[in-house]
């Protein structure tokens, strides 16, 4: 029984999380690191799966920067959060995931400019300690849930340990839908 609990999402989805899709849909929670090449490779897969699922799935992003090997990941997470304060989290999320690791300060400011953000506000928000605290909190949530690398995905609160491929992830979501229907 204890081993089963080790694979569960310990902190439920809340209003503090960035999510899109219906609150009553299947949940797909991803702990990610914007500098992680595996997260970048998983990005189009997850986007395609979510598009296929349509209104049946809710996607949640939680930050898990692995600073020891990805020194730019924390700054990128701050940029996503700062963009979110101007209503552009998802646009910045996409831009960061497609950045191919170009996540230095100049890159982040350029992305903010491309998205039409107020750059002075963006810089102030990047320096706001409450955003750094949110990122630390999400990383701690991940550690409590057994996250030890990225990407880590949870489907309806249970860690998904399969390949992050369209076929495998679609199969896991379809299996979860069948459970919900029975």
Short synopsis of the structure:
This protein is α+β, with helices and mostly antiparallel strands. The protein has helices at residues 2-5, 37-53, 73-84, 89-97, 105-114, 119-126, 129-144, 166-181; strands at residues 18-20, 26-32, 57-63, 152-155, 158-160. The protein has a 5-stranded mixed β-sheet.
Can you walk me through this structure?
It is a single chain. The protein is α+β, with helices and mostly antiparallel strands. The protein has a single domain, classed as Glutaredoxin (3-Layer(aba) Sandwich). The protein contains 8 helices and 5 strands. The protein has a 5-stranded mixed beta sheet. Strand 2, helix 2 and strand 3 form a beta-alpha-beta unit. Helix 3 packs parallel to helix 5. The two termini are about 25 Å apart. The model has no long low-confidence stretch (mean pLDDT about 95).
Order of helices and strands: HEEHEHHHHHEEH
CATH architecture: 3-Layer(aba) Sandwich
Order of strands side by side in the largest beta sheet? 1-3-2-4-5
Low-confidence stretches: none
Under CATH, the homologous superfamily reads Glutaredoxin
Strand content: 5-15%
- Alpha carbon gap, first and last residue: 23 Å
- What's the alpha carbon Rg, rounded to whole Å? 16 Å
Rounded mean pLDDT score = 94
What is the CATH fold-level name? Glutaredoxin
CATH class: Alpha Beta
In terms of structural class, how would the helical and strand content be classed? alpha+beta
Main beta sheet? 5 strands, mixed
Kindly state the number of beta strands. 5
Q: Which tags fit this structure?
A:
single chain; 182 residues; alpha+beta; Glutaredoxin; five-stranded mixed sheet; globular
């Amino acid at each position: 029984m204890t081993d089963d609990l080790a694979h569960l999402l310990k902190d439920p989805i809340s209003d503090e999380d960035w999510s899109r899709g219906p609150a009553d849909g299947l949940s797909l929670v991803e702990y990610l690191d914007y500098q992680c090449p595996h997260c970048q490779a998983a990005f189009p897969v997850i986007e395609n799966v979510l598009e296929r699922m349509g209104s049946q799935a809710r996607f949640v992003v939680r930050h898990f920067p692995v600073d020891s090997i990805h020194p730019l990941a924390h700054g990128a997470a701050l940029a996503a959060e700062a963009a979110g304060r101007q209503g552009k989290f998802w646009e910045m999320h996409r831009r960061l995931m497609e950045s191919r690791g170009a996540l230095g300060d100049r890159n982040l400011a350029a992305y903010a400019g491309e998205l039409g953000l107020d750059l002075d506000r963006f810089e102030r928000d990047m320096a706001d300690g409450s955003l750094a605290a949110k990122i630390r909190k999400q990383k701690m949530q991940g550690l409590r849930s057994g996250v030890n690398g990225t990407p880590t995905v949870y489907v309806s609160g249970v860690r998904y340990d399969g390949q992050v491929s369209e076929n495998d992830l679609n199969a896991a979501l379809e299996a979860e839908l069948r459970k919900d229907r029975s």
